[in-house]
Design goal:
Blueprint (H helix, E strand, L loop, with lengths): L17 E3 L10 E6 L9 H15 L8 E4 L3 H13 L3 E6 L4 H9 L3 E5 L12 H18 L2 E2 L7 H17 L6 E5 L4 H13 L4 E7 L36 E5 L1 H15 L5 H14 L7 E6 L14
Parallel strand pairs: 2-10, 3-4, 3-6, 4-5, 7-8, 7-10, 8-9
Antiparallel strand pairs: 1-2
Helix pairs in contact: 1-2, 1-5, 2-3, 5-6, 7-8
């Protein structure tokens, strides 16, 4: 952190620590470097894209003074946008599935956002948001955008998402690791952090390999049979095409079960005092698999996308 008084909390976005998970990798050849994104003001990596999206739209005139900002969110992007909008004076509307953890809705409301909760599709379970659920959220977001004449942040298509990680997160990982990263592993939500970080890292070393993580029962991107789209790893695994994803950046796809994600998130807290959510556990679980197999002895960078505090109403830390 800079040794100065910040003019606003937005200056605290980014420059998060990179931690060597030396305890969880004990007995395994290789290292895992974890980018602890819950050091951001909204306790997650999406603070970066919330700020980038708003500032880019201000610069090019897509976002007018006083205009409402709206976005479909599982919670974390909404929190990042709510923070940026609170400081910059834009009304913000977040549209979210009721299947996501309620801590995130409460956080957004605390930052002044209006949160619209959309009922899940028939057959979906609370805490297990599927692509079908997301379709319903998208429909409501489009309706409200027209009604409010709002600026749509559009995290699945807006290149500011990728740019936030290419310009900042990926460069931070490279610098903090001393240029020693061999592999990057990331759970796919929008794929913005995977693509952005991979682009940044490959500018320094074109041989860096990238692995995309998906839920084992919803490995749509890997081309596998989707046996159950209702998984517990919130924030991704939506069984849909991701516009940002570029095949040439993907070495392979990794599958992680609900149980592996939960067990590894609990291990992270217990052994490393790193308090992450479901996707944090998924990322580290996938990295451990790689260190025990095809990437033995390598240095793997992962993102800890958000804080376990956002999941206290779930069974993650029962």
């Amino acid at each position: 952190m800079d040794n100065k008084i910040l003019t606003s909390i937005l200056e605290a976005v980014g420059r998060t620590p990179l931690v060597n998970l030396s305890r969880i990798t004990s007995g395994v050849e290789g290292q895992i470097f974890a980018k602890i994104e819950y050091f951001n003001p909204g306790f997650g990596k999406k603070d970066r894209i919330g700020l980038q999206i708003v500032e880019d739209a201000e610069r090019d005139g897509r976002l007018r003074k006083g205009q409402t900002v709206i976005e479909l969110t599982s919670g974390s992007t909404g929190i990042g946008l709510a923070i940026a909008c609170a400081i910059k004076g834009y009304p913000f509307v977040a549209v979210m599935s009721r299947g996501n953890s309620m801590e995130r809705a409460r956080m957004m409301r605390a930052f002044g956002a209006k949160v619209v909760l959309v009922d899940q599709a028939p057959g979906s379970e609370p805490g297990q948001v599927s692509g079908e659920d997301l379709v319903l959220v998208e429909q409501e977001t489009q309706r409200l955008q027209k009604e409010l004449k709002a600026f749509r942040a559009d995290q699945f298509n807006n290149r500011s998402n990728v740019n936030a990680h290419e310009l900042h997160t990926g460069e931070e990982i490279w610098t903090q690791s001393g240029g020693t990263v061999d592999v990057f592993v990331d759970f796919a939500g929008t794929a913005g952090s995977f693509v952005g970080c991979m682009k940044a890292l490959r500018k320094h070393n074109p041989d860096i390999r990238g692995y995309v993580v998906e839920p084992a029962t919803a490995a749509y991107l890997a081309g596998k049979l989707v046996s159950n789209p209702n998984h517990k790893i919130q924030g991704g695994g939506y069984c849909m095409d991701l516009p940002f994803l570029e095949d040439e950046l993907v070495e392979d796809y990794m599958q992680v079960t609900n149980e592996e994600a939960i067990d590894t998130a609990r291990r992270l807290a217990r052994e490393e005092a790193v308090f992450g959510g479901f996707s944090s556990g998924a990322n580290v679980a996938a990295a451990l698999k790689l260190l025990k197999g095809r990437e033995r002895g390598k240095n793997i960078a992962v993102i800890i996308p958000d804080s376990g505090l956002k999941y206290m109403s779930t069974d993650l830390f029962e």
